[in-house]
Structure formats: structure tokens, C-alpha cells
Amino acid sequence: MVGLALEWLVIRHLYGRMIDTMLATWGISLALIGGMTMLVGNTTTGIPTPLPSVSIGDYSVSGYVIFLIALALAVFAGLFCLFKLTTFGLQARATTQNAEMVAALGGKPRRIYALTFGLGAALAGLGGAALAPLTGVIPTIGASYIAKSFITVISGGAAVIAGNLSASVLFGSVGQIFTYVFTPVIGEVALLLTAIVLIRILPQGITGRFFRRSI
User: Fold this and answer.
1) Residue 123 reports pLDDT greater than 90
2) Cβ contacts of residue 164 below 8 Å, gap of 6+?
3) Do residues 127 and 25 make contact, with C-beta atoms less than 8 angstroms apart?
4) Can you tell me the distance from the alpha carbon of 145 to that of 198, in angstroms, rounded to the nearest whole number?
């Protein structure tokens, strides 16, 4: 509901102006962070992990991490079904390609824009809630993920589902492998270097060359 309200109040006036939209959403995020900090403070509130660890031989892994992987796969599957098998998904994909044609055929691009923005806001809220037991709750909880999210979207390319899935799997694997072998700092550096090389080789993103017919 917050996402729909923001889209109606601010974002809908900025369609077609990418830089202005980015600045507006960045400003809104700063305002929300400042407002929540004044209301609840900036002390991290810990949330206990709801699932016990799982032992596999000599190794142990958090059961909640396994749950997060399953949740991510379920979200991707749900989005795939939504955009591939429903009328709304068809109209949303068509609107991103040619909004004027959708309007000429009786569609409502403004409504599609509002619903997809609201869906994106809902997914962001779900991500924050899911990560809370691992990171704690603080108004700036999303700050450490903004750069990674931006890199993932850019590297994924035009296909929303296939692009984000392939880019997130690639960057996540690189980051975790180098973190395990070396240190978390090296893992972050390796992730960034991978993104730079990938964008240099594939300027249109992964789906600009692969998975072109995917959504």
C-alpha cells in the first residue's frame, strides 16, 4: 500500500524521466530512513533465528539460510507464473515494450505502472523482513544492499526474471566462494570485479545475449 501511495503521489509524474525518477526515489528513501530514525532510533534490534542449524556430515549450516534459498526460489517461481501465465503479466510485458500500443488496444498503462511499482515495493518489504533475523532491524537495513541490487539488475539485462536470477546466482556464488577461501573483504572485491568484467563484455546484460526469449 505504501508503494502504491508513493507511485500515485510522486512516481507517476516522472515517467519518461529516468534520472528524475532515480533522484526522487533516492530522496524518498532518505526521508523514510530519517523519519524512522527519529521515531524508533538507530539501535539495531536483534531477532532470533526461527530455525535450528542443519548438520550435513562434519559441516553445519543455518536452517534459516536454507529457508531463505527456498523462499527466493518460490518468489521467482511465483513471478514467472504471474508474468508468463496471467493477463496482467502479458500486459505488463507489453507495456514495458510499447505502452502506446497497449493503450491503443484498450490497455491501461498507468494502472500497469502503478501495480508493478506496488509489487516491487512489496517484494522489497518481503526481502527486508526475510533478512531481519540475519541482519537485525534498523532503519538503514537496506543501505548495504542497494549497490548489489543495482549491479545485479544492470548485469541481468532486459529480461526481469531470467536476468535477475542468473546475475544473482553468479554474483552470489563468486562472493561466497571468495569469502570462504579468503575473507569477506576479498569476497566483496571479487564480486565487484566480476560485475565490471561482465558489464564490459556484455554491455546489454546477460539476457542481452543469452535467454533473449525469456521474461
Assistant:
1) yes
2) 152, 153, 156
3) no
4) 19
